[in-house]
Design goal:
The protein has 361 residues and is of the alpha/beta class. Helices cover 42% and strands 16% of the residues. It has a domain at 4-201 and 231-259 and 301-321: NAD(P)-binding Rossmann-like Domain (Rossmann fold, 3-Layer(aba) Sandwich), CATH 3.40.50.720. The protein has 12 helices and 12 strands. Helix 1 packs across helix 7 and helix 2 (70-79) runs parallel beside helix 4. The radius of gyration is 20 Å and the shape is globular. The structure holds nicotinamide-adenine-dinucleotide and 2'deoxy-thymidine-5'-diphospho-alpha-D-glucose (DAU). Nicotinamide-adenine-dinucleotide (NAD) binds at residues 13-14, 16-20, 39-43, 45-46, 66-68, 88-92, 107, 111, 138-140, 169, 192, 194-195, 201.
Length: 361
């Protein structure tokens, strides 16, 4: 039995970010009868420009606000009769969490608690909203820590977070789980591997390398470049989330991944080679691989991630549709086709533009 017919008013948090904006676009196209409210603080990572193509859809409402603002969140639950939450909002960059963990504790832990408490009040204490509800918490494989040469993360792997970011996400997962066990809040958690694709903020490895390589800048590779990440095309992550919303079991956790393990150095070399093919070598005539620089390692750098996505495949029938070879070409083509988006994000001008647009709303 699926939830389609009962999912009416969806609160998406962090929908102006990378994965959230891809999700909002996909959900509006796949769920014609749903209303979607996007609550986003518009931090440096939030960009309503990611959603210009759907911003006038009558089923869509954007609210600039903080998930830690309990009064605002409670008001949204009541006014919009929210029956489904898809919680993306977070501070998401590991390097930033090392430089300044406080925002990660606030948004990722206190923010998640604020949303859970609002859902509990609206759905269980006041029971003001009829029908089936779901609180889907979007989390990460980083909560499981670091793997050696072999093995994969399953849903029963012991949590072992090692950065302030992953510790804050692990904490939020535990809160979600506690709200299910203690109060019976209808929660579900997804733990996904590294995403890549359109609208990825160019502080993260793949978009940073694409942008630097295009502009003839150094390509920083941490440590020996042999750390392994397991890559998933972002739209496949979004279809997994829709699948879990429809069919996922209450209180369950699902690992999501694309079975695409790559060393960082392979990723960087692949991006260089595809760009050389598409736009030619550097003006000096050298290949873009000549820009690679091995730099000081990230403190506590997790060595390897690998997701076993067998449960979501076997129980819910989800599997990724885009191979890494296809996805990386699609991604590079998107960045080549959207230089204005990249320029505005890199120079920060998108923030001022939207600050003025939303001032006083
Ligand atoms: P992102 O940094 O691109 O976007 C985060 C969004 O949250 C931004 O729009 C930002 O403005 C918003 N936000 C931040 N703090 C907020 C607050 N206090 N109130 C309201 N909005 C706030 O992140 P992303 O890469 O799209 O990741 C989204 C979610 O998916 C995160 O929870 C992350 O942990 C998880 N995740 C990411 C990946 C990945 O590879 N990017 C993989 C697995 C899980
Ligand atoms: O695994 C899921 C996680 O993937 C998400 O939970 C995070 O939100 C997301 O940011 C991502 O975390 P990573 O730390 O794996 O992603 P990042 O793109 O920052 O780095 C990928 C790998 O590349 C990592 O091993 C560090 C390395 N790296 C990164 C940057 C930015 C470099 O070698 N050079 C770089 O300049």
């Amino acid at each position: 039995m699926t939830r389609d017919s009962r999912m009416k008013n969806i609160l998406v948090t962090g929908g102006a970010g990378f994965i959230g904006s891809n999700f909002v676009r996909l959900a509006l196209s796949r769920l014609p009868d749903c209303r979607l409210i996007n609550l986003d603080k518009l931090t440096y990572a939030g960009n309503p420009g990611n959603l210009v193509d759907i911003q006038d859809d009558p089923r869509y409402r954007f609210v600039q606000g903080d998930i830690c603002d309990a009064a605002l969140v409670a008001e949204l639950f009541a006014d919009e009769q929210i029956d489904t939450v898809v919680h993306f909002a977070a501070e998401s960059h590991v390097d930033r969490s090392i430089d300044g963990p406080a925002e990660f504790i606030q948004t990722n832990i206190v923010g998640t608690f604020t949303l859970l408490e609002a859902a509990r009040q609206a759905w269980l204490v006041n029971a003001a909203v009829a029908g089936d509800k779901r609180f889907l918490h979007v989390s990460t494989d980083e909560v499981y820590g670091s793997l050696g040469e072999t093995g994969m993360f399953t849903e029963t792997t012991r949590y072992d977070p090692r950065s302030p970011y992953s510790a804050s996400k692990a904490s939020s997962d535990h809160l979600v789980s506690a709200y299910f066990h203690t109060y019976g809040l209808p929660t579900v958690i997804t733990n996904c591997s590294n995403n890549y694709g359109p609208y990825h903020f160019p502080e993260k490895l793949i978009p940073l390398i694409i942008n630097n390589a295009l502009n003839g800048k150094d390509l920083p590779v941490y440590g020996d470049g042999k750390n392994v990440r397991d890559w998933l095309y972002v739209v496949d992550h979004c279809t997994a989330i829709l699948t879990v919303l429809h069919q996922g079991g209450v209180g369950e956790t699902y690992n999501v991944g694309g079975n695409n393990e790559k060393q960082n150095i392979e990723i960087v070399q692949t991006v260089c080679d595809i760009l050389d093919q598409k736009v030619g070598p550097l003006p000096s005539g050298e290949p873009r691989r000549s820009l690679i620089r091995f730099v000081k390692d990230r403190p506590g750098h997790d060595r390897r991630y690998a997701i076993d996505a067998g449960k979501i495949a076997a129980e819910l029938g989800w599997k990724p549709s885009v191979t890494f070879a296809e996805g990386i070409v699609k991604t590079i083509e998107w960045y080549l086709a959207n230089p204005d988006w990249v320029a505005a994000v890199v120079d920060g001008s998108y923030q001022e533009y939207y600050r003025q647009m939303y001032a006083g709303r």
